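Late entry, evening session. Most of the bench is empty. Finally got around to the prediction I had been postponing all week. Sequence below, unchanged from the version circulated by S.P.
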Amino acid sequence: MTSTRPLHLAAELAPGSGRAAPGPDTAARTVALARLAEAAALDFVTHDDSFARPGLDALAVLARVAPETRSVGLVPTVTTTHTEPFHVQAAVATLDWVSRGRAGWRIEVSPTGAEARLFGRRPAPPTAELWQEAGEVAEVSRKLWDSWEDDAEIRDAATGRFVDRRKLHHVDFQGATFSVKGPSIVPRPPQGNPVTVVDATRPAARDTAAHHADVVLVRASSAEEAAALRAELHRSARAHGRDPGQLRVLLSLTVDLDAYEGGPGALAELIAGWHGGGAVDGFHLVPAVPERDLERFAAGTATRLRDRGLFRSAYGGATLRDHLGLARPVSQYATTGASA
């Protein structure tokens, strides 16, 4: 039985994320790959990042990609360990502004002592504590994005009033390792809240994913395993008071279209089968060689999926939330009438 649920597709662009050795990491390379993904109408692209290896800053690179693309979502990995939550949320909000509502962020933690020594602020806590902290960063980021109501900006040159101070709100957040007073210094992003992505491959990340993510990435060796993970995430999301229908679960799959038996056609069959059976909401593809495999996916796999009526031929909306079928959230302060 074929599912009528929308199929969501995304791809990783960072060199060396698949099985191949890392190649050159340049902004021009990333722009070219993002344009290829956009021509295939993928929901979004990701750019992995880590303090554990050298390379360009993912968020800065995708900010460079933003004006060179029109529709594809842009999701850099952003590490919440050793970084300041206030700065992190401002940077992600800025990416949403410069991309005109196409930004997300993939939350990651830095668990090693070597990464901690780069900063010299504190030793590396246990991984479970880092993911608890990451959840608090996600929570305070939403509060800061909401701290400007949508109509807070006045920009009245005649009176010299730029903002209605009654529509700016202190968040007064106290976490286990940080506190933030707010409000943000960046007006509310076009999407209200940029899309939050969490890789829940590791069990330690799953509660944070279920509590805070809009998109969850998982890995599984069978459709049955993937379906069980999706059901587990839905149960946990419901336990946190969330609507599981607003959670997108994507299978993260390494693809080598130079060596898989059956090539792009076999990949199309796998995607159609797993999605149609309800195991996942879509796929996050990690190409072994992005320059080669993403082009073959766009020309072969995506075309086959469109021919079967399973994937879009063009974007139907302007924002990443539109692509994913996610509602734009109302500011929590506008809703509750909280005072500044």
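Two things to note before I forget:
The chain has a mean pLDDT of 93.
Residues 90 and 186 are 6 Å apart (CA to CA).
Will write this up properly tomorrow.
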